[in-house]
Hints:
Elements: E1 3-8, H1 13-24, E2 28-35, E3 53-57, H2 64-72, E4 76-79, H3 92-112, E5 118-124, H4 151-169, E6 174-180, E7 182-184, H5 191-196, E8 201-204, E9 210-211, E10 213-215, H6 216-227, E11 238-242, E12 248-249, H7 250-257, E13 261-264, H8 266-278, H9 286-294, H10 301-305, H11 315-324, H12 333-347
Parallel strand pairs: 1-2, 1-4, 2-3, 4-5, 5-6, 6-11, 7-10, 8-13
Antiparallel strand pairs: 9-12
Helix pairs in contact: 1-6, 2-3, 3-4, 7-12
Amino acid sequence: MGMVVLVTGVSRRLGARFVAELRRRPGVDLVVGVDVQPPRSPVEEPAEPAAPYRFQQLDLRRPAVARVIAEHRVDTVVHLAVSATGLGSTNRAAVKESNVIGTMQLLGACQKAPGVRRLVVKSTTGVYGSAPRDPAVFTERTQPKNLPGGGFAKDAVEVEGYVRGFARRRPDVAVTVLRFANIVGPGADTPLSEYFAMPVLPTVLGYDPRLQFVHEDDALAVLVRAAEEPEPGTVNTGTFNVAGEGVLLLSQCARRLGRPTLPLLLPAISWMAGLARRTRMVDFSPEQLRLLTHGRVVDTTALRDTFGYRPRFTTPEAFADFAAAQSTGLLPPERLTAVTDRLGALLGPEHAPGAHPAHPGPPNRPRRPRS
């Protein structure tokens, strides 16, 4: 018999694409999708013969998922339902319950199912936090100096803790945790993409953080590889950072979008972010504000050397594909990008867009605003 895969979070874009791709894979007999709401658009039907698909509408916070796993004799579980935003609800308490309590219920069901042999969990590099004295590059073994104090990043920290406990109780299950950088692409629907869609980008005065991105196509490919048996010479169990090579400064992102920036003092932008959340204009969370102040860069050596996957898109290339799908900004991005890229080349390779230090350097230091 082939694989029977249960996938959570299938009503979101990444989950729906993952289901469609998984159904095309040889050796997959059945894919079972689970989410609290049905998909907004019809599930993509692969052109070629594909594995059958069953959708189960249920809330992971309820124990009904155990019945679904037992009924379909699921052997592989891919948990994509840990998200920064909820489906049909913007209430932060409800989102946290869905992330944390939903994961606890799912892991409890997996623990009682002797047929489950593989578990893949989508996490985030946000578990490292964003602080002024962070190391230049986070590896999977780096302990953050300041754990996230709230929001989606804290949810992910708790989720990973429960996953580690599950791995100790069920050592026979292959467990993979994928820490994704911010996912971008033509169809990205994340809070950070909402920020970049604003006509004017508010920034913190005196700071120009380094950012990393992963293209949605690479995120999909990594998930598929994690759900299957490892290829010869690779290991797909453990914890892996997932990001495109290179970095971009926030100012470079703004220029590529043609968006002007509005530098503000931190108290002012914090007040503006709170107002945006209350009015539901954009999900400008405190953790996102910290990211846009201090930035975050992760090492992806394990992804390439151990997991055996090199992203097709670098960070600049992934962001360029995202930018190409956005509405034209107020400034001409092509001219701005050409000028800044030429200036970076004249100054040297270390100033080139997307330049990434080969070895960890000093921590991110905020630039002092000029008086």
